[in-house]
Design goal:
By secondary structure, this protein is of the alpha/beta class. The chain contains twelve helices and 16 strands. Helix 6 crosses helix 7. The radius of gyration is 23 Å and the shape is globular. The N terminus is likely disordered.
Length: 441
Amino acid sequence: MTRSKTPKPDKRNGSISRRAALKGLGAVAGGTAALGLAPGFVRYIQVSAAEPIKIGFQAHRTGIGAAYGRWYERTTNAAVKLINEAGGIAGRPIELITEDDGTDPKRGAEVVEKFASQHQVDITFGTLFSHVVMGSAPRAGELKMPYYVVSEGHHVASGALNRYTFQPGITDVKAQVSSMAPWVAKNLGKKVTMIFPDYAFGYDHRDYFSAAIEKQGGEVVKLLPIPATETSYTKYFPQIPSDTEVLYHVMVGPGVLTFVKEMGEFYGSNRPQIFGFIDSLEAVDMASPGLEFLDGTYFWEAYPRYAQANQSGADKFYRAAVGVDANGASLEDAKDVSTYSHMFGCWETLYIIKEAVEASGYQSATDADKKKLIEATEAMSGWKEGNEHPQGDKTFSGQLHQCFGHQFISKVAGGKLEVVHRTEIADGTYEPETDYTKMAL
């Protein structure tokens, strides 16, 4: 567990800066003088006014999500630092409290419990892997803990969870595949074999891409679910039907690089069109030996890893703040590749939390203030692209507790990814399946 301490300055934590602290102290001192209060009273008011907002960060530091967790944590720390240097949330610094959930559903629920009972946080956020969200969210609901996840599963928007759980800073799988299926059918083919992880996230791909490609006149000819802990895939490739036109892959876990290499060895130059989700190669250098096979194949990206020719000012700002170069790798180590297509969700979600807290007038973890925070989040309608939302514009459905945004299709060329298509937000929107606002608080 880590805590960022306030107001000691530290470039890698979420502490308020010395300048911001002194500025706040000066403002309070001026206020006490105007009220005719004794100078010694300033310290008391300053401590009270600077009471931190405690945010519990549920991190995948270990387990199959560790590569994501490390970059989620780095992105979160960078955002917290900037928010605190700018005055915090409603004038209060963020105190970030981090716990490792081991990328495990049972442990995830225990972390939520610990945040509530031991750390007494105001808000919990950060979870990525769907099975951990599914294991943690029910406990968050029981505890009336505002829980902002940075996952991609359709579990939130489907209505399967509760009114305390939101996914406002990253799109879900249903929106992603719905927006891209028309492009895949038109440009790559209509007979698809799907390879996906054998748990909730993979099932979302299975269900929603199958439905989306059928709407385009296509069909899924084979489904190949693979355990997320698998480390060799040679036994699966012979099961792919010979009439497959598109091999759709979305793998995660410790064996993803092996998966791609073994796929290349199996097919050689005689291969179907290949469309993958970048999840298969997050935190992996596209120019790694053995990945030459991928040249000319396509990937979904939520946020392009490689800075494009039309790079926005917001992307430049975000990369600099997180410490990522134009290739999506750490500025300190070019071999340390980020999980760029996912980690932005932490950055954007923290700014959404800030906006919701300030709009609601939230003060403390009382039922009344939590209710105001939930309702303020539900009242949001979306965000414009900018430094706080560098990935792009988004709309938000308070009914679904889910955002909708742009998706990107990129082609592998020379060991890099070049964007060839950007969807419209409307391409991925769908009719509400639930209405969380009608649930009791």
